[in-house]
Amino acid sequence: MKICTKHKDQPDALIEILHDTQHKFGYLSNAVLVEIADILNISRADIHGIVSFYDDFRREPQTGPCVKICRAEACQAVGGEALADHAKNTGVESHDVYCLGNCALGPAVMIDDKLHGRVDAQKLDALLKECT
Ligand code: FES
User: Fold this and answer.
1) What is the pTM of this model?
2) Domain membership flag for residue 59
C-alpha cells in the first residue's frame, strides 16, 4: 500500500497512515485495516483500538457532509447547546467535538474540512443546504 510506503511502513506513523487512508477512501474498511496491520506488523486489535478511540475515523462510508459541532465551554456560552439541539431535532447527523480552535467565533462548526464561526440554527441550515 503506497500510503504505508510513504510513511516508511513505520508503526509509529499509524495515526497518519489511518488519516491518509481515510482521506483517500472516505472511510476505513475492515479489509484496509487488515492490510495496514499486516504491512506494519502490528495486531489487528491494536488498529481497531486506535480507530475506535478517535471519533475522526469512520468505519462506514459517509452518506452526507461530515458535521462537527463544538460542545466546549466557549461555544456553549454563546449558543452552542441550542445549535446542537437544533441539529439533533432536525435530523442533522453530527459529531460532538471539544474545541475546533475557533473559540472567539463560537459557536463553531466544521462541515467536511471547512471551519465556520458564529453559527446559529439558520446559518447551519443554510450551510447544509449549500452541501446538497
Ligand atoms: S470552544 Fe468551541 S471552538 Fe473552541
Assistant:
1) 0.71
2) no
